[in-house]
Write a structure and sequence with these properties.
Length: 189
């Protein structure tokens, strides 16, 4: 049993400090994952709070069947999928007045020795396009790609999170990568 699962077992018997430790450990990575999924920082903050609330409420029935991170990202992915599938979600958050991504979590990290203005503009434009194309992927493809690239989960862990076979994960990743590549190539022409 990993140390995070041990913390969950402590939460199960009422240890609030164990929950605080898990919360502090996973707050930033989970926010980053959720933000990449939904494309809106304030929505991501709300969803992360809801996800942690679900984890806390589920503690009495938690049984460690694998790594805690697999459990955490399964809960997070399902919660995000439910959020983006809501009818009013797209209507509310896909307005032209509100940018889809902000630089705090979704923008380009610049090194101290900044490149020329042309290179900077091109890099920011490319990062914005990648984010746009990523947001347009089907939900499960986006989830698989983010879990693989951003969270470095194995194919088996992604399969556990999404509730699909390893073969389906490979297919989702293949289609997502091909779609992104084709859209970028089409955009650059």
């Amino acid at each position: 049993m990993d140390s995070d699962s041990q913390l969950m077992m402590a939460i199960k018997v009422g240890d609030r400090q164990a929950f605080e430790k898990l919360f502090q450990k996973y707050l930033k990575p989970l926010h980053h994952f959720v933000f990449r999924f939904v494309g809106n920082s304030s929505v991501a903050e709300e969803l992360v709070q809801e996800i942690f609330f679900k984890i806390y409420k589920a503690a009495p029935t938690y049984e460690p069947r694998g790594r805690f991170t697999t459990y955490l990202y399964r809960v997070a992915t399902n919660h995000c999928l439910n959020e983006v599938r809501r009818v009013d979600y797209k209507e509310h958050f896909d307005s032209l007045d509100q940018p889809k991504f902000n630089n705090e979590y979704g923008g380009l990290e610049l090194p101290d020795n900044q490149p020329s203005a042309d290179k900077l503009y091109w890099a920011q434009t490319m990062a914005g396009k990648i984010q746009e194309f990523l947001a347009d992927l089907p939900d499960k493809q986006r989830a698989a790609l983010l879990l693989n690239r951003l969270e470095a989960l194995s194919y088996q862990e992604i399969a556990d999170v999404l509730g699909v076979s390893v073969g389906a994960v490979k297919s989702l990743l293949h289609r997502a990568k091909n779609t992104l590549r084709d859209r970028l190539e089409g955009w650059q022409k």
